[in-house]
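Dear H.,

Thanks for agreeing to be a second pair of eyes. The structure we're designing against is below in token form, covering all 708 positions.
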């Protein structure tokens, strides 16, 4: 059987009944173009045939043929050359703010200490912690008697010290929005409201005098010509500079951050080193300003007895920093390095408005910043020197992140707690000084900062382990002195509350030792062990070549590269050499670390003496031994410490160590047996006594001690 082919002839009147078979209908439209041909060509046809394939006599058939094809676009015309030219982008006015103008942020707490409370800086800040830390920031108004002289106004600094501020350009328009992560720190139009860009450039040199003249002139011209500059019928009437209040300037700043109409530029001198530029507080304590040498003087805040930064030489974070601002200059969102405490004092000038997100909401803040970065710029590059992203604090509040507002006036302090993110803007010319410090309760925050830095392969400014074990050395020393003299000193009170079986400091030490134990058991069991010598980190701290982590307690080294070290986690990435060529370096054995735990718990006095001897024998670096006399001198001005025999146990490496052999542990423990002679030697030394610790007569008495 076959299929019979039947030819069907349709008249032109029946062409509208033709339809495409099922499945052959085009899903997209197309345009029939005219293909020009040479007139002399034998294949040249008329224009009508070129376009449709029909002759001039089949005009009606052609029209009906095209109508039955809905995918063919009718009435298409070739655009002219002028129409093909690119048109300029129309500058449209931004939409009104999405954030409610009636949105009010929660105010930070303000404290007014008494003269007695204000005397001890760290104790007073510690008393505010429970009430103020949930806000991330707080303000402290000093007593009326606290009016330190501002040395920045002196001619030597005011007219001679030069700095180079940064130029902040707000309201910039850019197509390639590469946004810098200012926060340590990590669309549709509705989502990007309240997020703008600010380009930062290096500005010319200024002195404080010339900068103030520029700032005053700018503020007067900006607000004096506000209607003309903004060109907005919704803008508020222009105000004179002397009539402006904080709320007026904050409204203008919010307009710039959330919905700028034009591009403006301001100057901001940020993080000026007071060691070279000059500090606003007195560096020394002359007779007329001796009362300003307390801990509220930012030149001595970092080195206070209760600050862990006083135990080591951390100049990178101990030197106060100075900021010089003008009207609308901004401090972008950031968090303090190493999550340290920060104490800020406004010397002179206009107020500063702070915004803060507490450390307990840190994860929410970073997630919100990351989402806005992805919406505005797609994938965020690792490094970018392009515009900085500005986030409105009111927009963060709308996103469900609690934001605290704080207004700081001249002569007031602002305390920023660990882990908090903050930003600020200035209401006019002002000078602000900031210093970092680390009380004992900072240690948990510092531990987290170390872990984050290692994950990001970022160098830490301070050696956390070195600071931790230096604090342990100080704690054991105070506990040992109390166990011998039974005198309740300020040093013992401070450490006794955090030590013991369940003390904060003891638990931190136990956690660190447990982590070190696990790493040694599972990672370096096959390596040759070797104790670190004193020259290991005498000059600079050692860092892992992979994660840049601190290598104070332990490290791995290979014979192929003497100056290259790694942490225990990355020992396989140190080099391609086999394990038998690598060696494990340690500072303390696990038995010695367990001895430290016993000493901090205060169960055995012998553990304190044994740990002190081990610590000084293997870990007394030149930097540590040289700093001991300075620490002792600083403590004599604040508190009286007994000068007993334990000073020799601590001062290993001094001249007396080479001349006189230290008392043995058995002689010290004879105190419990009722030895009167031994008890007599443990009393504090007086200036009139002729004991060996008072003068060089110790050489003559050395043979007698050895016989005993």
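And this is the sequence the design step returned. I haven't edited it by hand at all.
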């Amino acid at each position: 059987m076959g299929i019979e082919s039947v030819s069907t002839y349709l008249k032109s009147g029946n062409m509208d009944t033709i339809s495409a078979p099922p499945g052959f209908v085009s899903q997209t439209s197309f345009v029939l173009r005219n293909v020009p041909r040479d007139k002399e060509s034998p294949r040249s046809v008329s224009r009508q045939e070129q376009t449709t394939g029909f002759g001039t006599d089949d005009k009606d058939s052609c029209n009906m043929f095209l109508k039955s094809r809905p995918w063919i676009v009718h009435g298409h015309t070739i655009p002219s050359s002028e129409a093909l030219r690119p048109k300029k982008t129309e500058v449209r006015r931004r939409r009104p703010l999405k954030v409610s103008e009636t949105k009010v942020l929660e105010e930070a707490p303000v404290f007014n200490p008494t003269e007695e409370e204000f005397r001890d800086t760290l104790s007073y800040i510690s008393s505010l912690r429970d009430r103020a830390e949930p806000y991330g920031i707080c303000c402290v108004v000093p007593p009326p008697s606290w009016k330190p002289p501002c040395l920045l106004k002196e001619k030597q600094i005011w007219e001679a010290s030069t700095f180079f501020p940064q130029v902040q350009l707000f309201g910039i328009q850019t197509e390639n929005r590469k946004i810098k992560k200012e926060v340590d720190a990590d669309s549709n139009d509705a989502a990007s409201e309240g997020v703008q860009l600010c380009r930062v450039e290096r500005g010319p040199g200024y002195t404080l005098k010339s900068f103030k003249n520029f700032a005053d002139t700018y503020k007067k011209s900006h607000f004096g010509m506000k209607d003309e500059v903004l060109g907005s019928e919704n803008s508020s009437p222009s105000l004179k500079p002397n009539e402006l209040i904080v709320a007026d300037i904050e409204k203008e700043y919010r307009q710039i951050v959330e919905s700028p109409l034009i591009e403006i530029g301001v100057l901001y001198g940020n993080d000026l080193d007071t060691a070279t530029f000059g500090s606003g507080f007195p560096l020394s304590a002359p007779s007329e300003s001796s009362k300003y040498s307390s801990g509220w003087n930012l030149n001595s805040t970092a080195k206070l007895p209760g600050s862990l930064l006083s135990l080591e030489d951390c100049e990178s974070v101990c030197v106060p920093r100075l900021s010089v601002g003008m009207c609308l200059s901004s401090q972008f969102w950031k968090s303090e390095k190493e999550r340290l405490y920060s104490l800020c004092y406004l010397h002179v000038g206009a107020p500063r408005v702070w915004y803060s997100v507490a450390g307990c909401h840190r994860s929410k803040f970073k997630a919100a910043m990351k989402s806005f970065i992805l919406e505005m710029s797609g994938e965020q590059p690792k490094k970018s020197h392009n515009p900085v992203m500005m986030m409105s604090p009111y927009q963060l509040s709308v996103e469900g992140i609690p934001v605290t507002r704080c207004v700081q006036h001249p002569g007031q302090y602002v305390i920023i707690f660990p882990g908090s993110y903050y930003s600020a803007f200035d209401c006019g010319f002002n000078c602000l000084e900031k210093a970092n410090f680390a009380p004992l309760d900072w240690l948990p925050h510092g531990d987290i900062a170390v872990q984050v830095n290692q994950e990001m392969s970022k160098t830490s400014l301070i050696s956390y382990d070195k600071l931790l074990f230096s604090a342990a050395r100080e704690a054991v020393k105070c506990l040992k002195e109390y166990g011998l003299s039974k005198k309740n000193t300020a040093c013992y009170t401070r450490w006794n509350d955090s030590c013991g079986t369940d003390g904060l400091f003891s638990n931190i030490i136990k956690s660190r030792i447990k982590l070190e134990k696990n790493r040694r058991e599972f990672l370096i069991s096959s390596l040759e062990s070797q104790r670190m010598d004193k020259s290991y980190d005498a000059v600079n701290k050692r860092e892992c070549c992979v994660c840049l982590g601190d290598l104070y307690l332990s490290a791995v080294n290979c014979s192929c590269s003497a100056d290259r070290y790694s942490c225990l986690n990355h020992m396989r990435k140190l080099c391609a050499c086999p394990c038998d060529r690598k060696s494990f370096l340690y500072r303390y054995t696990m038995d010695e670390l367990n001895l430290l735990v016993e000493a901090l718990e205060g169960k055995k006095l012998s553990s304190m003496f044994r740990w002190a001897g081990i610590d000084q024998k293997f870990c007394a670096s030149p930097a540590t031994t040289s700093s001991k006399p300075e620490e002792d001198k600083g403590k004599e001005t604040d508190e009286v410490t007994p000068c007993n025999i334990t000073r020799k146990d601590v001062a290993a490496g001094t001249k007396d160590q080479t001349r006189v052999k230290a008392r043995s542990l058995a002689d010290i423990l004879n105190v419990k047996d009722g030895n009167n002679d031994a008890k007599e030697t443990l009393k504090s030394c007086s200036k009139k006594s002729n004991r060996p610790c008072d003068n060089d007569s110790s050489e003559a008495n050395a043979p007698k001690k050895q016989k005993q």
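Two observations from my side: The chain has a mean pLDDT of 74. DSSP finds 26 helices and 21 strands in the chain.

Warmly,
E.
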